[in-house]
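Fill in residues.
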C-alpha cells in the first residue's frame, strides 16, 4: 500500500500572511500643482480655480490621486484642499504626497483594521516573495501589530523562514 507523503508545512500550524494581497487594487494618478504655477513660482487662486474647473475629473475615476508639487514653491494649504475637493467624487482615494507615503499610510490603515483576536497565540509567517512590490514599511507595521499577539513571527515562505520574533517563555 502506497503511503501519502507527509506535508510538514501543512502540519506545522503556521499561519501565512501575504501582504501583497492587501495592496490597493487601483492605479495611481499624479496631480502636480507645479503645472499651475505662474512663472513657476506663484499659485494664483483665480487662475487655479479656473484651471481646475476645466479638468476632466472623470479621467481620475477609480484611481488613487496623489497630489504634490514638483516645483520648489510655497503652496498654500487651500490648493491641496481644492484639488482634493474636485478629485474626491471621482477617485478611489485622494492623498497629498507620493506613492511611498501613500502606501505607508494605506498599510497602517489596513493592518490596523485586522481582527487582533484571530492572531492571538498564532505562529505567523509573513510571506516574503511577491509579484508586486510591498513596501518595507508594511512589513514593519505588520510586526508592530502582530508582536503583542502572536507566539512567533517568521519571514519568508513556510518551507524556508527567517525567525523575526519569538514570545519569551514565562
Amino acid at each position: 500500500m502506497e503511503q501519502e507523503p507527509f506535508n510538514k508545512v501543512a502540519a506545522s500550524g503556521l499561519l501565512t500572511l501575504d501582504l501583497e494581497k492587501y495592496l490597493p487594487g487601483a492605479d495611481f494618478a499624479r496631480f502636480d500643482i507645479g503645472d499651475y504655477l505662474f512663472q513657476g513660482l506663484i499659485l494664483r487662486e483665480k487662475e487655479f480655480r479656473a484651471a481646475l474647473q476645466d479638468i476632466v475629473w472623470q479621467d481620475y475615476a477609480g484611481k488613487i490621486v496623489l497630489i504634490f508639487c514638483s516645483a520648489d514653491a510655497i503652496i498654500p494649504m487651500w490648493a491641496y484642499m481644492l484639488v482634493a475637493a474636485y478629485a474626491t467624487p471621482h477617485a478611489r482615494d485622494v492623498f497629498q504626497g507620493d506613492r511611498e507615503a501613500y502606501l505607508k499610510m494605506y498599510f497602517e490603515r489596513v493592518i490596523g483594521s485586522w481582527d487582533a483576536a484571530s492572531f492571538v497565540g498564532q505562529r505567523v509567517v509573513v510571506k516574503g516573495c511577491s509579484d508586486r512590490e510591498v513596501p518595507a514599511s508594511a512589513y514593519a507595521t505588520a510586526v508592530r501589530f502582530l508582536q503583542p499577539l502572536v507566539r512567533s513571527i517568521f519571514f519568508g515562505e513556510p518551507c524556508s523562514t527567517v525567525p523575526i520574533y519569538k514570545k519569551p517563555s514565562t
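Confidence is low (pLDDT under 50) at residues 5-11.
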